[in-house]
Design a protein that fits this description.
This protein has 324 residues and is mainly beta. It has three helices and 20 strands. It folds into two domains: 131 residues, no CATH class; 128 residues, no CATH class. The protein is 10% helix and 32% strand. A hairpin with a 2-residue loop joins strand 5 and strand 6. The chain is rod-shaped and about 110 Å long.
């Protein structure tokens, strides 16, 4: 090994250390004679017959393959009667018969040194340290399902297996933030939330999704878009029942028994039991003198009904939305 001096020995040592750490195979140093004018095996700069993983190429060097020979008028080198480029030929990397080999990974020859090109499936070079090779076990399925940061199911991307991505889905009508932008069911998804009307008259207040029905019994419509409910059931939501007290009087509740066993007139929609997805409280009040249930989104209107009209606050009926 006296011929492996200076930069030549350093380059072989780096390559050997790299692939001993990568698990690409055992290091096998098998120097072979070179064919030069003096017949010496090392004086012409010959190096061990090994590369990544150290797998010698059968017959290379020992059977007369030349490193740097020019019998074929090769501009770089002649190995076993073939013109090769010792800087880029993975079969003869830096010398005849020095094969770049990395087990199941892919190796290449760059500037006469064996380097790692691609890790084997399920592994990755995630610490950026070439000396320990593909040190990390990775589990990434390109296009597979993954959990997003907001709890929805996204699509996995594996452009970098060491840092896989999870692209969120488009927003859906489900009372959740699917696309992880901090808002639920935004952009007025068609058919997602339905608006309710509010009217008042001799039989108290009325609330509903049908304008003609809400305006019945001589009621005057006070608001055409009073608040919004989900038009269909969604996870985490509860129904808002409209119960019939008789005589054109109704009240709203989340109770499927209408609290005191009154008949359900209809389900107006689905609301939230808490302040989720931007929902606001729907205040409930009652006037015994008028036998009227009154509902408002405004704390100021609630307080005025109590102070001026004798209503009693009955808390929060549920949480609804101010927009579609």
């Amino acid at each position: 090994m006296s011929g492996l001096v200076g930069g030549a020995w350093l380059r072989v040592l780096v390559a050997a250390l790299l692939w001993m750490g990568c698990g690409g195979g055992t290091l096998a140093i098998a120097p072979g004679p070179t064919k030069d004018s003096g017949g010496a095996s090392a004086a012409d700069g010959g190096r061990p017959d090994t590369g990544l993983g150290g797998r010698p190429d059968s017959g290379a060097g020992a059977d007369g393959g030349a490193e740097g020979g020019t019998s074929l008028d090769c501009p770089d080198a002649e190995c076993d009667g073939e013109c090769v480029n010792l800087s880029s030929d993975a079969r003869h990397c830096g010398g005849c018969g020095r094969t770049c080999w990395a087990g199941e990974a892919e190796a290449a020859c760059v500037d006469g040194l064996c380097v790692l090109v691609e890790c084997a499936p399920g592994t990755g070079d995630c610490d950026g340290d070439s000396l320990n090779g593909c040190e990390t076990a990775v589990d990434c399925t390109d296009g597979g399902a993954c959990a997003t940061t907001c709890g929805s199911t996204g699509t996995q991307g594996c452009a970098d297996v060491c840092a896989p991505t999870c692209a969120p889905p488009v927003e859906a009508c489900n009372a959740q933030d699917d696309d992880c932008d901090g808002a639920c069911d935004e952009d007025a998804l068609p058919g997602c939330r339905a608006s309710l009307y509010r009217s008042s008259g001799a039989t108290g207040h009325n609330y509903g999704r049908d304008l003609a029905e809400v305006a019945a019994f001589g009621h005057s419509v006070e608001s055409s878009v009073y608040f919004y409910l989900y038009a269909a059931e969604a996870p985490g939501l509860v129904p808002l029942y409209r119960c019939d007290k008789g005589g054109g009087r109704r009240f709203l509740t989340a109770s499927s028994s209408c609290e005191i066993g009154l008949p359900i007139d209809q389900i107006l929609g689905w609301m939230a039991p808490g302040p989720t997805c931007g929902a606001v409280p729907l205040h409930r009040l009652y006037s015994g003198a008028a036998n009227d249930h009154f509902y408002t989104l405004s704390a100021g209107e609630r307080d005025n009904a109590v102070a001026v009209y004798g209503y009693v606050s009955e808390g929060i009926a549920g949480y609804v939305w101010t927009g579609p």
